[in-house]
Amino acid sequence: MLNPAKIKVLYLVTKSNWGGAQRYVYDLATHLGSGTPSAEAVVACGGEGLLVRKLGEKKIRVIPLPDAQRDIAIFKEIKLLIQLFKIVKSEKPDVLHVNSSKLAGLGAFIGFVTRTRTIFTVHGWPFNEDRPWWQRLLIYKFSWLTSFFSDITITITQSDFAQGKRMPFVGHKMRMIHNAIEQIDFYSRDEARKKLGLDESDFVVGSIGELHKNKGFIYLAKAAEHLPNAKFVIMGEGEERNSLDKTKLRLLGQVPDASRYLKAFDIFVLPSLKEGLPYVLLEASQARLPVVASNVGGIIDIVGNAGFLPWPKNSKDLIYFIKQFTKNNQLRLDLGLKLQNRLIEKFSFDKFLKETYKLYTR
Questions:
Q1: What is the CATH number of domain 189-346?
Q2: With contact defined as beta carbons under 8 Å apart, do 339 and 290 qualify?
Q3: Which residues, 6+ apart, have CB-to-CB distance to 145 below 8 Å?
Q4: Distance set, CA 289 to CA 37, 89, 163, 303 (Å)
Q5: Tens-digit pLDDT profile for the chain (362 aa)?
Q6: Residue-range domain boundaries for the chain
Q7: Taken in order 84, 87, 90, 94, is the CA torsion positive or negative?
Q8: Using CA atoms, how far apart are residues 179 and 276, in angstroms rounded to an integer?
């Protein structure tokens, strides 16, 4: 058993943008030394995005991975594998905590070869994505191998945990630990609306997320065509901007500290096709916003019966549920409060940290 006061953890994550996996790594890395001054966190990632800048502000050392990218290119993967081997041998971490599907697989293999304790966090099983069957089969095998090479696999949703437990020979390695968030310093409704250029009289349907096909914003755009009395606002940037620019959605781009503006919204909508445990829903819950969110991944873990859960790719259901909130102010208030209370009861940030760190020391 490791001495938690003398522990070094090397975190791996593919990209350095500010997505769910990156925020997860940031929270764990920046809180690791709390109460244990000699604990050390090091992060290895690709790019020079917001994660790198935020870690720099917290004096967390970052190792660049120039060959880390989401798409697979065989020669770059070989170079990356060699680089990861050299990093692990040089850093000599007590724990290697791997994230992001591809880098997690390579990292777990290196952890296995170097006999380094390896923790693998699943931010949504990638074989659940909408792909051809043969691709999902290959991805399933790669995910299984990652768990096989790891000592422990953390899932962040009940559905992923159930799938992981059914995997042959690795089911016993599964642990379920929900993500959680710290208290947000929200802008008031009036201040947030003023900063975003929204009128007090507007009924605002809002969301935060990457403009990527997996977020399903095109289905929200189709719903917006049938809801002329509401304004639809999205904070986020991504590859789908050009197509979404032609819709009734108002795209605000990348807004720093976007969660602070949540009280500007009347309701929060997340029409995703795939999710792990989305931080934006935890944030919306803390802001006491009623939500309409696709019944995928860990969304039901957060919302339960405290919101509306349409199936993905269903604009008709989005229209119907949004209309329920536009017509009934008391329903908005009741479900917003119910969701906030559910967050307080089930998603403790301290519990998230303690349960994860406990796995480092076994």
A1: 3.40.50.2000
A2: yes
A3: 105, 108, 109
A4: 38, 47, 31, 11
A5: 445 558 999 999 999 989 899 999 999 999 997 655 579 999 999 999 999 999 999 999 999 999 886 566 677 889 999 999 999 999 999 999 999 888 999 999 999 999 999 999 999 999 998 899 999 999 999 999 999 999 999 999 999 999 999 999 999 999 999 999 999 999 999 999 999 999 999 999 999 999 999 999 999 999 999 999 999 999 999 999 999 999 999 999 999 999 999 999 999 999 999 999 999 999 999 999 999 999 999 999 999 999 999 999 999 999 999 999 999 999 999 999 999 999 999 999 999 999 999 999 87
A6: 4-180+348-360, 189-346
A7: negative
A8: 10
| 134-172: burial string, b at 16+ Cβ within 10 Å, e else | eebeebbeebbebbbbbbbbbbbbebbbebbeebeebee
- Structural tokens at position 31: 């809180």
pTM of the model: 0.92
Closest CA to 302 of 281, 321, 331: 281
**Which superfamily is assigned to 4-180+348-360 in CATH?**
Glycogen Phosphorylase B; (3.40.50.2000)
